[in-house]
Amino acid sequence: MERTIENKVLVVTGGADGLGLEMVCKFLDKGVKVAIIIDVNEQKGVAAVAKLTEKYGNNKAVFIRCDVTSDLEVTFEKIINEYKAVDVLINNAGILNEKALRKTIEVNTLALMEWTIKFYDYMRKDRGGNGGTIINVSSIFGFRIIAHNPFYQASKFAVLGFSKSIGHEYNYKKTGVRVVVLCPGLTYTNLSEKPKARDDDSNEDLFQEVEAMEWQEVVAIGDGAIEIFKNADSGTVWLVEGYRQAVMV
Q1: CB–CB of 196/152 below 8 Å?
Q2: What is the band of 207 on the pLDDT scale with cuts at 50, 70, 90?
Q3: Residue 83: is it exposed, middle or buried by C-beta count within 10 angstroms (0-12/13-18/19+)?
Q4: Which end of the chain is more exposed for a tag (fewer CB within 10 A), N or C?
Q5: Residues 6 or more apart from 175 whose CB is under 8 A from it?
Q6: Cα 19 to the center of its chain, rounded Å
Q7: Is residue 16 within 8 Å of 8, Cβ to Cβ?
Q8: What is the CA angle 174-180-183, rounded to 5?
Q9: Which pLDDT belongs to residue 195?
Q10: For residue 40, what are the CA distances in angstroms to 68, 85, 124, 180?
């Protein structure tokens, strides 16, 4: 499939800061036509677009306030009515809260699946679409086990199974829609600042375990997302860890 970035319409959920915003920046650097930032935090979204406009010019980045668990239909219609096509969707929105099982699954898993299917069906060449790429963000903890965050890990494991199935070569050949997975290693973001274990008396053990792991800044994820877009075949899973090149796992 065509894997050029220039003049593409990009949608990034959870794009107002952290990993999402860094990926927006990297794709803008590579020449996307417009980057559409989806986020529930309006203040951060507006601020992000203001900074991006200074750097990249008018109408290169736009913000739509959206709760990914409830606003998919209205947001999808708004995007399609305005831009007529979406070429790349990055499902990045996520939470880390072991005290909120249902919310964790709703945001990290169910919403990601719903957004994938909505845009996947729109992009399908066998149904009149132009094809496209969907990058689903999981985590290093989508396949690497620690003891303290079972709900988060379950939500990210599910992303792998879902994405590898919908992105299977059979489906790709039929639809022309590529679905791949990006698994970030431990990365310095607001999400990772104060992780909490399911059991409060395990918090210190969790801190010690993750502090000993390899960490990276968000720039590594932006670069990794570009690598994955250019190189990944549908249904594959890629790890970005420790500033190294993305590797298939």
Answers
A1: no
A2: confident
A3: middle
A4: N
A5: 120, 123, 124, 125, 126, 127, 131
A6: 8
A7: no
A8: 165
A9: 67
A10: 8, 23, 28, 24
Q: What is the pLDDT of residue 247?
A: 95
- The owner of tokens 């549908």 is 234
- The answer to whether residue 36 scores a pLDDT higher than 70 is yes
* CA nearest neighbour of 136 among 90, 200, 68: 90
Catalytic residue positions, numbered:
152
**What is the overall mean pLDDT for the chain?**
94
Cβ neighbours of 9 (radius 10 Å): 20
The listed range with the strongest mean pLDDT (11-15, 185-189, 204-208) is: 11-15
Beta carbons of 213 and 192 less than 8 angstroms apart = no
CB 219 within 8 A of CB 22: yes
Q: In what order do the strands lie in the sheet with 88-91?
A: 61-65, 34-39, 9-13, 88-91, 132-137, 177-184, 237-240, 247-248
Q: 203 falls in which pLDDT band (50, 70, 90)? A: confident
The C-alpha atoms of residue 132 and residue 107 are separated, in whole angstroms, by 23
Compute the distance between CA of residue 120 and CA of residue 116 in angstroms, rounded to an integer.
6
Token code pair at residue 8? 């593409």
Show the tokens assigned to 133.
């790429």
